[in-house]
Amino acid sequence: MKKHWKVWSLVAILIVAIGGWIGYRHAQAAKTTTVKIGLVGTDSQKVWDDVKARLAKDNIKIEYVTFNDYVQPNKALQDGQIDLHSCLTSYYFESYNKERHAHLTSIGNTVISPLGLYSKKYDKLSELPDGATIAIPNEPTTIGRGLNLLQSAGLIKVKANTGIRPGLKDITENPHHLKFKEVDPAQTPRALTSVDASIINGNYAEAANIKPGGKQAIFMEKVNKDVKPYVNIIAAREKDKDNPVYKKVVDDYQTESTKKAIDQTYHGSQVAAWPIFGKH
């Protein structure tokens, strides 16, 4: 009888232990917070995967929501379809916010993609001939950035009061009689075969396997305060700007581990922004 009693006692203990373990696991699962982050394409997931793995240890589950253009992420954030997005420059984001009266805000800096002048025909800027044809992105904010790049290179001058958004009509001096061919930003690498040089953003250069430090780069944008508007950011709804989970996401992104992942993944076509411009 004692034996049976001991056996049943052991069974009871095991049942209680198993029940406790299941309850614990359910409690742990209940504590996990899912954060939906909007990204454009899949390229930036390479870096976010590093952040995602670290956040999982703190019961924060990152879920990617991918978009095919740069308009949808803001709309999705406004509508509550996503919690954060990490795919837009500060300048584009703030322009959208102002024009649409959106209640969105930046909560952290991520990367910047340096703009560059690339050529397959010439190895140096000084070799670029008079009358050369330059491919320039036709997106309004990038046209201005491209013209400022050419001004930094000493090739043209633009009106002084146009700030970061001059247009082709704002060119005041063009001593080398450069010609401009406006193309879709994504097509600027392909344009290299039909023009003398092309202005290419870092993300498109990387996608085309064109390296900022490579032979085809004849002039690169200096990453300094003048290009701060082109820093990519993590965005949230204004009402969520102090959400501790979202702050944790930003903190875990802005680490040395992430910086190394950026350097190893992009080889200079994207650069960690927070060590240069600050965390926010």
From TrEMBL:
What is any one of the record's Gene Ontology cellular component terms?
A: membrane
Residues in coiled coil: none
| Pfam families in the cross-refs | Lipoprotein_9
User: What keywords sit in the KW lines?
Assistant: Lipoprotein, Membrane, Palmitate, Signal
State its location(s): Membrane
Output the superkingdom of the source species.
Bacteria
> Is-annotated flag, keyword Cell wall biogenesis/degradation?
no
Q: How does it sit in the membrane?
A: Lipid-anchor
Stored Gene3D superfamilies: Periplasmic binding protein-like II
Q: Show the SUPFAM superfamilies listed in the entry.
A: Periplasmic binding protein-like II (SSF53850)
Q: Which family does it belong to?
A: Belongs to the nlpA lipoprotein family.
Task: Give the protein name, as stated in the record.
Answer: Lipoprotein
Q: Name the species this protein comes from.
A: Limosilactobacillus equigenerosi DSM 18793 = JCM 14505
Q: What is the lineage of its organism?
A: Bacteria, Bacillati, Bacillota, Bacilli, Lactobacillales
